[in-house]
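Pilot study result, target chain (181 residues):
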Amino acid sequence: MGTDTAILDAASVLLEAHGPAGLTTRAVCDAAGIKAPTLYHHFGDKDGLERALLRRGLDAFMRRKRMLPASADPLDQLREGWDVAVEFALKHPALYALLVHHARAQPELTADAYALIQARVQRLVDMGRLHGPVEASARVIWAASQGVLSLVAQGRPRKEVEAVSDVLFDAVLARLSTPDV
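Predicted structure:
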C-alpha cells in the first residue's frame, strides 16, 4: 500500500468518525503516522486531500452503479442505481456531506451520476415505458433522489430513509410512466 493510499485511508476513517470538520491536516497526519510535508507532497493541501477523497469515493460509487448488466431491464437498473445512491449515503454520510459541499461549487462532480440516470431514462422513453421529454423526466428523478439523500444529511434513521425512498421512487415513476393504452 502506497503512502497516498495510507493517507486517504486514515482521512476516510477520520471523516466518517468526526465529519468534515474533523478532517484537519494535523489529525490526518497523526492518524496516518506522517509529517505535514508528506501530506502536502501527495495532496498539496487540505482541499487537495478532500478532492482526492471525493474522487476515490465517487469512483467506487460509480463502479457500483455501472456494475448492472446492460441487458437488464432499464427500470430495474434505474431503481438499483437509486438504491445504490441511498446505500452509499447511508454507509458514508460524512463523505456524502463533503460531496454535497463540493458539488455546489463543482457540479461536474455529479455529472457522471446524472448522465447515467439520463441514459436509463432515455432507454425507458425509447421503449415507451416513460413519457418524455427525457431531460425533464431525468431531472425529476434526480431531484427526487436528492430529496431522499437530504434525509441522510439530516441524520434521519435508516428505516425512515428507506421507507421514504420506496414511496418517492414509486410515486415519481408512476407519474412519469406511460399509461397502458
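One observation from the pilot: The CA atoms of residues 6 and 46 lie 15 Å apart. A full batch analysis is planned for the follow-on phase.
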